[in-house]
Amino acid sequence: MSDHYERVKIELQQMKEVENEAAADEEQLSPASVSPIPADVSFTARRDLSKSSINGRSRSKSRSKADGHERQVNGKQLTDLMLQKSDYSQGQSRVSNEPNLHIKGTAKLFKGKTAANGHVESCKRQTDGKCEHHGKEDESKVAKKRRAVTVDTSKAKTSLEALKMSIRQLKWKEFPMGRRTACDIYWHGVSFHDNENIISGQVNKFPGMIEMLRKINLSRAVRTMQELFPEEYNFYPRSWILPEEYQLFSTQIRLLKDNDSTLKPTYIVKPDSGSQGDGIYLIRDPADLRVISGSQIKQAVVQEYIQKPLLIDKLKFDIRLYVLVRSLEPLEIYIAKEGLSRFCTEPYQEPSQKNLSHVFMHLTNYSLNVHSGNFVHSDSCSTGSKRTFSSVLYRLASKGVDIKKVWSDIIALVIKTVIALVPELKVYYQADIPPGKPGPTCFQILGFDILLMKNLKPVLLEVNANPSMRIEHEQEVSPGVFEYVPSPVDEEVKVGVIRDTLRLMDPAQRKQHVTSSTDGSPEEAIVVETGSDEKEGLADSLPSLCLKQVFPKYTKQFNYLRAVERIAAIFLRFLGVKGTMRLGPTSFRTFIRNCKLSNSSFSMASVDILYIDITRRWAGMLPDSREAGMCLQAFIEAFFYLAARRFKALPLREQVHLLLEVCEGALEGQSHSEKPRPHRSHTNPASSQSSAPTTFSSPALTRRRHRPLQLSAKANTEN
Ligand code: ADP
């Protein structure tokens, strides 16, 4: 870390030397080798894809994760309507009474829109209030005054096409070869670490997201939440982690079958690092696990197979939804109003010994089904093997399905899943960008894969850290010859998602609408005004946002689930700021001492034994880890143990809640007597008010409010 810090200092110095902003704006890293695409392309309506088609490109070996390729977007109005009417909106529904349904958030441009467009509605709101409606002249003045937002696209990889289009639409400035001075936004194709030298601005990846979304880690994170909130987290199929839980899995399945011999459960086995259906297979008996054959035991998740999915045209399908995590602190989540539905290509039958290997019947992956003779490339969004999600909803609505309920269940699933991921993400974040050191802030678009059960309950299959943002798709133009051809629907959905993500991350646009709260009440969380771009003269040429904020909007309903995040805040406090992710034994002792958790019946010797036992076991489960010490998951386990020990005979969630109160109370007392030290939290620039959960008591538990924990109030320097 110190080397890195030295580098950072040098770079900061270099940056100071390059002060002339105007000149710097024009500066591309390597003028001689600049990309054929001009850096400052002025906006011209929608790009003609046929002109820049990449037909004839040979078939890529490393295809990105399954994505959608429907060609038209219908029923978008419906999606929008449903999102606005979701069950959680609690009277905040803004559904229009106008006869025409509004088309919001598409990639289409509505130049000079009339009142039937959501943006103008919002302008009206401003006019009704204090803001004046700004005319074209004012807009161009504002636009002239405003420095174009700069985006480094040099690492964008397969999302480059969609990103370029988004930047052009926004009239921002692209740096395709990187830039010597800092950019406002860095767009990475794979990971936070694609470019190690960023010390300011915003990066479109969080450190640790790829790791957290591997199948085993996602299962672990959800499982921790299931221990505390089994009802709330029943949207994730029961899973076992291999190889460590092979015995447990075998025993539980045997018991199940012994108890009821008519039961014929099926399980799906997924390699930990697999994607696009690679290496996935179905089994009906633990003995059929292929991962235990040979000397090498592969890491995998074995999961209860959902036997009764919702079918359309007798086919199984899943949903790809795009979700933006705009910030971890405060937590801000957006969901794209349009998604994709990927269909199987063989009529579905419940699993039987005969059909277990029929991948085209059981797996919805585009990357697999595209090779089936039955794959239908359709020009319509509502037929074929890949459709828009809104077209599916439209179809369901026509059959009387309560799609408003389906949407609100999906929103809940997304928020709960992100809440499960946040604790560990914060640990990664602090390790990479410790408080007090220069670094960027982060945001990330995730791809949620969701299955609807026959009873319409959404089930989480997986979350992709790098959902494909390709806007072209692979097509077999003649037998065995594949080409990439432009996909208008991909463009429609994905350019909208990227462009509106950028709009939300625009440094000049991010505005705070915070009513300061002395007690950290979740009801008073930050609200981002998504229509703020209208004040900058851009909205006239852009549709309203296709991303809908769901958190903090629904904070009230979900904040009580953020218990593990509070445990992580304690962990981080004792971890200190040295860029590590593991707690040493002395730090653990300090935690016990500072929180006053030891007593005559729980001596410091017992504390040491607890530390060693749990840390060793987790070290065995995480063989790849290079760092020694106690990881967050181990700390959580220790915390649960301490809670159960101290508050016997209560349900775990209440035990944990009470222990959190004890710890936070003790630490708060100490914080008050300590000198505050300056620190840089992993807060996005415009979001200075922490939204850290202050209580996780559900309505059933007594409420006692605490101030948010100061993550770096006292860094322990042990280790
Ligand atoms: P990958 O990353 O390889 O695509 P997924 O977890 O998405 O792995 O699984 C691939 C496909 O298998 C999914 O798209 C879905 O069709 C099917 N699938 C996955 N998990 C389940 C499950 N628990 N029940 C039923 N089908 C599943």
TrEMBL record:
Record has Transport as a keyword:
no
Disordered: region residues: 16-80, 669-719
Enumerate the Gene Ontology biological process terms: microtubule cytoskeleton organization
Query: Is Transferase one of the keywords?
Result: no
GO molecular function annotations of the record: ATP binding; tubulin binding; tubulin-glutamic acid ligase activity
Biased composition, class Low complexity, residue ranges: 683-700
Regions annotated as coiled coil: none
Q: Which UniProt keywords apply?
A: ATP-binding, Ligase, Nucleotide-binding
Q: Composition bias, kind Basic and acidic residues: at what positions? A: 64-73
One Pfam match, given by its short name, reads TTL
Q: Which InterPro entries match?
A: TTL/TTLL_fam (IPR004344)
Q: Single GO cellular component annotation?
A: ciliary basal body
Q: Please name the PANTHER family in this protein's record.
A: TUBULIN POLYGLUTAMYLASE (PTHR12241), TUBULIN POLYGLUTAMYLASE TTLL11 (PTHR12241:SF154)
Q: What is this protein called?
A: Tubulin polyglutamylase TTLL11
Could you tell me which species this protein originates from?
Onychostoma macrolepis
Organism ancestry: Eukaryota, Metazoa, Chordata, Craniata, Vertebrata
